[in-house]
Amino acid sequence: MALITTRSEILFTTRLALDASAYMYFPYSLKGEERWLGALIRVKRKGILFTRFIQNKDVKLAPLYTLQDSKTWN
User: Fold this and answer.
1) 73 φ, ψ to 5°?
2) Are the CB atoms for 31 and 21 separated by under 8 Å?
3) Which residues neighbour 67 within 8 Å (Cβ) at sequence distance 6 or greater?
4) Nearest 5 degrees, angle CA 51-CA 55-CA 57?
5) Per-residue confidence (pLDDT) for residue 71, from 0 to 100
6) What pLDDT is recorded for position 67?
7) CA atoms of 26 and 37, how far apart (whole Å)
8) Looking at residue 2, what is its pLDDT?
9) In the prediction, which pLDDT does 49 show?
């Protein structure tokens, strides 16, 4: 039984330093909450991960609990 299928979606979040000397990084704090950079990756073919990111649909900046909510991505 495969755990990842062609219907799978993978939520990818990461810690990212854009410019450590300027303190530009993810997650960053806004109004007391950490904002994460998150991307939703959809599996297109069995065994191979393919995706095309559409800005403002597949890549979002939000608190982690918001990124984990499936309603965020619909």
Assistant:
1) -100, 0
2) no
3) 11, 13, 36, 38, 60
4) 75
5) 92
6) 93
7) 6
8) 66
9) 62
Omega of the bond prior to 27 within 30 degrees of 0, cis?
A: yes
**pLDDT tens digits in sequence order for the chain, 74 residues long:** 667 777 778 888 888 888 878 878 889 888 999 999 898 887 776 656 666 677 667 788 899 999 999 899 88
CA distance 35 to 71: 17
CA distances from 7 to 4, 30, 43 (A): 8, 34, 6
- At position 1, the amino acid (one-letter code) is M
Q: What are phi and psi of 6, to 5 degrees?
A: -70, -5
Contact assessment for residue 40 and residue 73, using Cβ atoms and an 8 Å cutoff: yes
Give dist(CA 74, CA 27) in Å, integer.
Answer: 23
Residue 11 burial (CB count, 10 A): 14
Collapsed DSSP state (helix, strand, coil) of residue 40: strand
